[in-house]
Amino acid sequence: MISYVHCHIGQLPPDYLIDSFRTIDKVDPESRIIFVTDQDVEIEGVEVLQVKDIASEQTLRVMDMSLFADDPNQLWRTSIFRVFLVRDAMYHLKLDACYHFDSDVLMFQSSSEFEHLINDFDGLYITYHNSLEVVFGFSRFGGLEKTDKICSILHDVVFDPALQVQYSSAGMANEMRLICGIMDRNPDLIRRLNIFPNETNIVFDPSSYGQFFGGTHQGHPPGFAHHTHDIGRGIQSGELVPIMIDKKPYVKYDGKEYPIVNLHIHSKVTAPFL
What we know:
Layout: E1 3-8, H1 16-27, E2 32-37, E3 47-50, H2 51-54, H3 57-62, H4 75-93, E4 98-100, E5 105-107, H5 115-118, E6 124-128, E7 134-141, H6 144-158, H7 161-167, H8 175-185, E8 190-192, H9 208-214, H10 230-237, E9 241-245, E10 248-253, E11 256-259, E12 262-264
Parallel strand pairs: 1-2, 2-3, 6-8
Antiparallel strand pairs: 4-7, 5-12, 6-7, 9-10, 10-11
Helix pairs in contact: 4-6
């Protein structure tokens, strides 16, 4: 059975998290949807796991780290925590593998369309913005052994300012840059998912396609393409043309339309895409 593991720490978002669950259930009705949270909540069709019931000692140490402790945007902290909590959920439920993505991601393609393309790797497959940032627009944790190794490295990095500078390439030490730094140093643990049209006929959205279709939560309108994203530059140049066909996202490239598995709705306005 295919398993999707969501994770959200703190007050639950109003709508888009539930919308994410709804789209999973629509494209993969036989899948297992798991939600790790510290909130007292029940959601129909979703297995809820409480952080306090599954968190390992390593995870609890990380949740007490000083990194971003005083930052008004606590998402920078909780985004790091969730890597460990996904691992803990896999142990708790004895999962061999699972999909994971941010709470504002919607699914449009069944896993039957792409699982055979990404089940060949027992590490972490993840989408990316550019050479410096990966992002949980979509990911697949392919096994506990390598997930444990990723968590061990990330644990050491978040407690060592010198390592944070190295692994973030002297940028913000957020999970996007730190995990990218781990990948660059450990290609046997982490690989990039396909975000460009190619012979596999399937494309994953890091957030760039979602920003084009729905804008951003900073106020950019639909049609926005971020110049620092590899996909954004492709859209700006006209090489990539995102389009909707029968309410599903595609990207047109070289005269052919390629289905996009997911959309990372950066604006958090998910209703128009349901």
